[in-house]
TrEMBL record:
<dbReference type="GO" id="GO:0008408">
    <property type="term" value="F:3'-5' exonuclease activity"/>
</dbReference>
<dbReference type="InterPro" id="IPR001098">
    <property type="entry name" value="DNA-dir_DNA_pol_A_palm_dom"/>
</dbReference>
<feature type="domain" description="DNA-directed DNA polymerase family A palm">
    <location>
        <begin position="351"/>
        <end position="473"/>
    </location>
</feature>
<dbReference type="GO" id="GO:0006261">
    <property type="term" value="P:DNA-templated DNA replication"/>
</dbReference>
<dbReference type="GO" id="GO:0003887">
    <property type="term" value="F:DNA-directed DNA polymerase activity"/>
</dbReference>
<dbReference type="GO" id="GO:0003677">
    <property type="term" value="F:DNA binding"/>
</dbReference>
<dbReference type="InterPro" id="IPR002298">
    <property type="entry name" value="DNA_polymerase_A"/>
</dbReference>
<dbReference type="Pfam" id="PF00476">
    <property type="entry name" value="DNA_pol_A"/>
</dbReference>
<dbReference type="InterPro" id="IPR036397">
    <property type="entry name" value="RNaseH_sf"/>
</dbReference>
<dbReference type="Pfam" id="PF01612">
    <property type="entry name" value="DNA_pol_A_exo1"/>
</dbReference>
<protein>
    <recommendedName>
        <fullName>DNA-directed DNA polymerase family A palm domain-containing protein</fullName>
    </recommendedName>
</protein>
<dbReference type="InterPro" id="IPR002562">
    <property type="entry name" value="3'-5'_exonuclease_dom"/>
</dbReference>
<keyword id="KW-0235">DNA replication</keyword>
<feature type="domain" description="3'-5' exonuclease">
    <location>
        <begin position="1"/>
        <end position="129"/>
    </location>
</feature>
<dbReference type="InterPro" id="IPR043502">
    <property type="entry name" value="DNA/RNA_pol_sf"/>
</dbReference>
<dbReference type="InterPro" id="IPR012337">
    <property type="entry name" value="RNaseH-like_sf"/>
</dbReference>
Length: 506
């Protein structure tokens, strides 16, 4: 009998011991008995054994035997020492290998209580589940209880999940390193695009940290009044300290300082926004920046002011050299477009902020996917990534963490083909299968909705087909083949010939 079998099993196997004899996991049993404990004590051994309602069925000789589990942090944590030897605020716990030697008696007591508490918890939960009828479609299954359900389905499922965690997933580390390099290069290009534009309005913007909310807010919204407190106003200019990466030596100094000052001034134009922080200042989150930029690309040529078009002096008919004005779709630009005095400046602003959005998007891919999959803390010598699969979710669906292998970029948004990093071992094949819009298909079947059934029978992305039926301009774009309803890549094809509708309208 275990509590959190997954964790203990992997720890023991890391020392070379093969674990056999899985009888029950009290954490899973507690979840099956009461799925609402996420809001009332949780499923930790400490929380469960300290709850009299949970432990009411345990075989206790005396009331005093009801001793709840005590956490390792409570018993063994110590304050981290500062450089001067005094205690800091942070508490740390020594590695288990040290605790069992240096704190031998408390460690033995802790371990014994842990085992005893788990057994008593198992006895109580077994009794609780044995009194719960196993129901199917609201009708009790004859002669069956939820403890039978646990033994027949949940226990083998829990053991299977632990086996999946142990097996892990093989990843191509060399491929991840290569796309990390490409991602960082493209991110730097996008950063420089934004800085180049911003420098026109604020010279020191070339040194700013585009990942700093306070610096971005100062540049884009300097001079704005706080939405919650009209007595507070964001200054039109502000001094920021940044790392002195260029080792600039100030006048009269012999050595460069670690930090230097830059002065960021506002753009001088009122950018409209409807998104604010809890403190009343304009938000510079990804969604807020997207609203400013609109649904446009970051790719844009920012011409220098002294760039002139050279004309042939011998051209007898210069009127033929004139370029016809290009009709521009203003609806694609965000709210920043209207804030500037000329259309050209408005377009440049939107494209520059779109580049900033691209920086955020790439940074998210690097930090959430590319780097975690290369972490040595979640992979072994065999280059297989081992995540933790959690069955105790509020929705009843599985979740994964450290890393979250379920949360990989969608195919149409996977600009660096991160999914290709998951590979099969030699002489094996990797089968990729997915139910497209499973919940909506079930809804269409149960509701017997004619329009939904027809949409699924016709094929293509369901939401895109809905948009096509609702908006004439979308249907027109599909008929002109300016966008695609769906695209199935063939071998050697990396991207569709024209954008997908579900990507364009997002």
């Amino acid at each position: 009998v275990w509590h959190n079998y997954s964790f203990d099993c992997h720890v023991i196997e890391n020392y070379g011991f093969k674990v056999s004899g899985f009888h029950a996991d009290t954490m899973h049993m507690a979840r099956l008995w009461d799925s609402s404990r996420h809001l009332d004590g949780g499923y930790s051994l400490e929380g469960l054994t300290g709850d009299r309602r949970v432990m009411s069925r345990a075989q206790l000789n005396h009331e005093k035997d009801l001793i709840g589990k005590v956490s390792m942090k409570t018993i063994f944590s110590k304050k981290k020492l500062k450089k001067d030897g005094s205690e800091g605020k942070t508490s740390i716990i020594a590695p288990v290998e040290e605790l069992q030697r240096d704190e031998r008696i408390p460690w033995i007591c802790y371990s014994a209580l842990d085992a005893s508490s788990t057994l008593k918890l198992y006895e109580s939960l077994k009794s609780h589940l044995s009194d719960m009828p196993w129901k199917f479609d609201g009708v009790p299954v004859y002669g069956k209880t939820m403890y039978d359900f646990y033994n027949e389905y949940w226990r083998p499922f829990g053991e299977l999940l632990v086996m999946m965690e142990s097996e892990g997933m093989l990843v191509d580390r060399a491929y991840l390193e290569s796309i990390e390099k490409v991602a960082k290069e493209e991110q730097e290009v996008a950063v420089n695009r934004f800085r180049k534009w911003a420098t026109r309005y604020c010279p020191d913007a070339q040194y700013m940290n585009v990942g700093s909310d306070s610096q971005l807010r100062q540049l884009l919204f300097g001079g704005i009044v706080n939405r919650k407190d009209s007595n507070q106003t964001l200054p039109t200019e502000r001094i920021f300290k940044i790392p002195n990466v260029n080792n600039v030596i100030e006048e009269g100094k012999k050595a460069p300082k670690r930090f230097c000052d830059i002065k960021l001034t506002s753009l001088g134009y009122n950018l409209e926004t409807e998104m604010y922080t809890a403190t009343g200042w304009p938000s510079v989150s990804g969604h807020a920046l997207k609203a400013l930029a609109g649904s446009i690309s970051a790719d844009y040529d920012f011409f220098d002011e002294d760039c002139n078009l050279d004309l042939d002096d011998e051209d007898e008919n210069p009127s033929q050299s004139e370029v016809a004005p290009v009709k521009i779709d203003k609806s694609a630009y965000g709210t920043a477009y209207a804030a500037f005095p000329t259309e050209e400046e408005g377009r440049e602003a939107c494209h520059a902020i779109a580049a900033l959005c691209q920086v955020c998007s790439i940074n998210s891919l690097i930090s959430n996917f590319i780097l975690p999959l290369q972490g040595h803390n979640i992979s072994g010598k065999d280059l297989r990534v081992h995540c933790s699969l959690n069955i105790n979710t509020e929705t009843g669906r599985l979740s994964a963490r450290r890393p979250n292998l379920q949360n990989q970029p969608a195919l149409e948004k996977d600009r660096y083909k991160i999914r290709q990093a998951f590979i099969a071992a030699p002489k094996n094949s990797l089968i990729v299968a997915d139910y497209g819009q499973l919940e909506l298909r079930i809804l269409a079947h149960l509701a017997d909705c004619k329009s939904m059934l027809e949409a699924f029978e016709a094929g293509g992305d369901f939401h895109s087909r809905t948009a096509m039926n609702m908006y004439p301009h979308i249907r027109e774009a599909l008929e002109k083949k300016e966008v695609l309803l769906e695209w199935h890549p063939q071998p050697g094809e990396d991207k569709p010939p024209v954008p997908l509708l579900k990507v364009t309208v997002c």
